[in-house]
Every structure is written in C-alpha cells, then in structure tokens.
Amino acid sequence: MRISVMIEGQEDVTWEDWVALADACERSGIEALFRSDHYLSVSGEHGRGALDAWGTICGLAARTQSLRLGTLVSPASFRHPSILAKLATTADHISGGRIELGLGTGWSEVEHRAYGFRFLPMKERMDVLEEQLRIVHGHWREGRFSFSGERYAVDDLDALPKPVQRPHPPLVMGGGAGPRAARLAAAYADEYNTVYPTLDEVRERRAAIAAACEKAGREPIPFSVMVMTVIGHDRAEAERRAQELSAWSGSQVDFGELGRTGVGGTVEEAVARLRAYEEAGAERAFLQCLLHRDLDMIDLIGRELVPAVT
C-alpha cells in the first residue's frame, strides 16, 4: 500500500507550517504531501486562515526534491478549467514532474456563499465537473482541442507547454462512487478516492469503479481512501494526541470510531488497520493529520508506519 500525508490547509496552516511539513515528509521518506482545497474552515472556525492550494503547491514544488504534491480535491466550482489545467501544468514544471490533480464537485455551501462562488444543485455540479474533466484533459493532450459545452467553451486550443509527466499528471477523482461519478472516473481519472469509509464501503465503492472501468473497456484504476489518523509509539502517546486533537477540534476523538473509519492507536494497530483497508481493495491511504504542527507524528508515519506497509 502507498502512503501519503493529507493536510487540511484551511485550518490555519501558515507558509512556515507548509515548509516544515514538506521538510518533515522528505526527511522521513513519505512519498507525497496532499492538501485540501478550501478557502474557509470546514470545522466552523472561521477565524482560521487558508492559503490558496495551488499557490502553496507551486511554492513547495520549488523547494522540494522528491516529494509528490497534490490536491484532495480541488472543487470544480473554484476555477475555470483552463486556469486549473494551467496551474497544475505550471506546478508540474516547477517540480520536475511531481504533481497530481485531485478534482471534485465541491461541497461546502457556506464557503461558496462567503467567497462568492455559485453553489449549484448536485446534478449541475456534476455537469460542471464533467465539462471540466474534458477540458483539463484537452489541455494536456497533444495537438489542438476544441470544446463547446453548456458552461465552458475552448476553441482550437493547443495549450503549451504540456506537462512534464506524460501523458499527463495523475488525476484523482474524489467522492462516493455513485453511478455518474463512477462513469466519469472510468473515462477520465487515474485514481478514485473516498473519504472516511468503512471496510464494507471500500469494497462496494471499489467494485462500482471497477465495473465502470470494465464497461468502458479499461483496466480498473487504483482505489484509495482518506482517513483521519492519530497514532503514537505506544498507546499513551496516541491517547495524548487524541486529547490534543479533541481540544483543537472541539469534539471528542473516539478510538472506537477511528477503528471503524480511520487509523488510530499504536503503529502496530495502524499497520493492522491499513492492511484491512488493503485487503478490502484500497491501494493507497491518504493519512489526514489534523494536528498539522505535530511533526513528530509525521516522522513516525514516515520512519515506522510507511516501511511496515509498503
């Protein structure tokens, strides 16, 4: 199983924090650092700040050497698809080919309202996502590309330069693997991610994605999970971190719930949980580390957890 660290960037993660996180990931051997793409706290703490996701990624791309970087996931409602494709391509060039683009519909209505983004009904958000997927792929492929949809149009476009990664940077779709999402993933995605799933949900959603890929005449794409993670060298350290997270989030962190939809406890317990996700069909885990200044846990993930499961 591949392991990536995922940080909720809208919860007051400063540039100094991002630099420290990237350094810790590279130092400890973690393959990838992903971040959410939000402008407003999703915890209701609207006094917390958020740096732009793609601005952050471009900055980190210039000062890292091996770390892969990406969004999990960028809302289609935030940016015109030509801007999004150009940002991802720019970051790919800055990094020398270490970028992944996560793309989804967007879900936080209060955030959209606060920042002036239109928040459409789900069917219309899926319509937007489908057009964006087509245009982003059109930017990345060789030759000229035209598209005319209900919301976007590009005319005789040959977007240069193309990304460093060929045929293009990996595109990760996120969601619950409903019928339309599965069809779009089979057509455009290189990986499908789902958030806080139980083992049964991993099996069901992975099967839905695999069936859609088969129908599209394609091998199944990799399936991944994003899971809240609280671990320690021993149980006492894990419980201390859980208490810190409870105080930070304002809600009690329950190891019982983590055992159902996340990863918690000792390194050994975390390994067993990740193995269970792997057996259910997950090929990568994005470990959501909400205590973003706890670099000791990042080191623990890289030095002990990653070697045990990869």
Describe this protein's structure.
The chain has 310 residues and is an alpha/beta fold. 46% of the residues lie in helices and 19% in strands. The protein has eleven helices and twelve strands. It has an eight-stranded parallel β-barrel, surrounded by eight helices. Strand 8 (171-174), helix 6 (179-188) and strand 9 form a beta-alpha-beta unit. Helix 1 (15-28) packs parallel to helix 11, helix 6 (179-188) crosses helix 7 and helix 10 packs across helix 11. The longest helix is centred in the middle third of the chain and has 19 residues, at 122-140. The mean pLDDT is 97.
Features:
two-stranded antiparallel ribbon; 19% strand; globular; 310 residues; 11 helices; alpha/beta; eight-stranded parallel beta barrel
Give the topology.
Layout: E1 2-7, H1 15-28, E2 32-35, H2 53-63, E3 68-71, E4 74-75, H3 81-95, E5 99-104, H4 109-115, H5 122-140, E6 145-148, E7 153-157, E8 171-174, H6 179-188, E9 191-195, H7 199-215, E10 223-232, H8 235-249, H9 255-261, E11 263-266, H10 267-280, E12 284-288, H11 295-309
Parallel strand pairs: 1-2, 1-12, 2-3, 3-5, 4-5, 5-8, 8-9, 9-10, 10-11, 10-12
Antiparallel strand pairs: 6-7
